[in-house]
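Q: Structure tokens for this one, please.
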Amino acid sequence: MAHQLADMLRTATEALNQGDVQTFLDLHADDVVVHVTGRNAYSGTFTGKGELASAFENQAKALDGPPQFEVHDVLASEAHGIMLGVQLAARGGRTLQSRTAIIAHERDGKFSEIWVIPEDPYAEDEFYS
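A: Here is the predicted structure, written as tokens:
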């Protein structure tokens, strides 16, 4: 039987892969904190749904289409979920393929804090520069 947090991670990923930002945001607490490793315009710490939505909107404008995430595995406990996979994105004729771990903390049925950790943040920094 799948764990609720694992299901949430898969639903969030499916929504983003389809460009459905609203469904994605509905899975997050209003005061969610998202940490994205790197030193580019789309990395940093985003606090609240508004900042998170703005970050995704700005990223979408820079990309040739919605980024895709291919799920390798999802692991979950009562409080944390970990998703392993590959982030795929295209921008101006260049492509990014980055193995990434996403760690999510859940509170009251919503994501409350998330860490996005790419294997090679320098490659992402270069892709987004």
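A few notes: The longest helix spans residues 48-62. The domain at 4-128 is CATH 3.10.450.50 (Nuclear Transport Factor 2; Chain: A,).
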